[in-house]
Amino acid sequence: MPGTVIAGGGSKAFRLPKGRALKLTNTHGTQTVDMWALRDRDPSEYLSVEHTRRMLFNLFPQVGQPLFSNRRTPLLQLEADSAPGKHDMLLACCDKWLYQHYGCAPGHPNCRDNFVAALFEIGIDSLQVPNPVNLWMNVPVTGDSKLALEPPISRAGDFVVLRALEDGVVVFSACPMDISPVNGGKTPRPVMCEILPD
After folding, report:
1. Residue 56 phi, psi dihedral angles, 5° rounding
2. What is the pTM of this model?
3. Under a CB-based contact definition with an 8 Å cutoff, are residues 147 and 19 in contact?
4. pLDDT of 11-60, one tens digit each?
5. Domain residues for 35?
6. What is the pLDDT of residues 109-129, one digit of tens each?
7. Beta partners for 150?
8. Strands in the chain per DSSP E
9. In contact, 130 and 163? CB cutoff 8 Å
10. How many domains does the chain have?
């Protein structure tokens, strides 16, 4: 299957059968991508960063570890990661209220709306927006438990490979953030998603 470009600031949902894997490439290296996963037949079961942290006793996902649902089902496995450890599972996705807080005009693109739109495009009407795994988002935790927003350390061409452990849907939003440094202080850039052959 040829790769799909996800425009900077845009989103896309992919159906991923159990056992299949996809590769997401950070084409320019500076782009944060919000990622969600749902059970295909029951979208009320979704990837939960809260439950994943509890099951793994890790703040951040590591290669070889599963990502768990809100019912503690392993949904995805992080099979490969060329920039390991620099993904965030602490912060909520950007939304219209965050951009209002930043003083932006109404209608600023945001990951919350991107999630809903991407699912609607494939026939899923979601009323809840779980917290995402923020791929390549650099949120260091200091010794006094403070958080920071830093530019990504990912390089052009860095990638992750995620394998479905259940029939599911994976949603990616190439984060539209252009205020804080989470996209390197740059205009949001496109990324590439490829469903890998069996």
Report:
1. -95, -20
2. 0.96
3. no
4. 999 999 999 999 999 999 999 999 999 999 899 999 999 999 999 999 99
5. 4-195
6. 999 999 999 999 999 998 889
7. 138
8. 4-6, 11-16, 21-26, 33-39, 66-68, 74-81, 133-135, 158-164, 168-174, 191-195
9. no
10. 1
Helices (H), the chain: 49-56, 96-101, 111-121
Kind of pairing, strands 74-81 and 133-135? unpaired
Assigned token pair, 36: 């969600």
Tokens encoding 8: 């900077």
Q: Are 122 and 169 in contact (CB under 8 A)?
A: yes
Q: How far apart are CA 28 and CA 158, in angstroms?
A: 9
Neighbours of 62 (CB within 10 A): 12
**∠ at Cα 151 (150, 153), nearest 5°?**
110
Q: Please answer whether residues 26 and 158 qualify as being in contact, where contact means their C-beta atoms are separated by less than 8 angstroms.
A: yes
Q: CB–CB of 185/27 below 8 Å?
A: no
> Residue 67 pairs with which residues in a beta bridge?
76
List C-alpha distances in Å: 95 to 27, 130, 136, 176.
24, 12, 19, 10
CA-to-CA separations, 84 to 27, 70, 134, 136, in angstroms, rounded:
16, 24, 13, 9
Helix (H) or strand (E) holding 75: strand 74-81
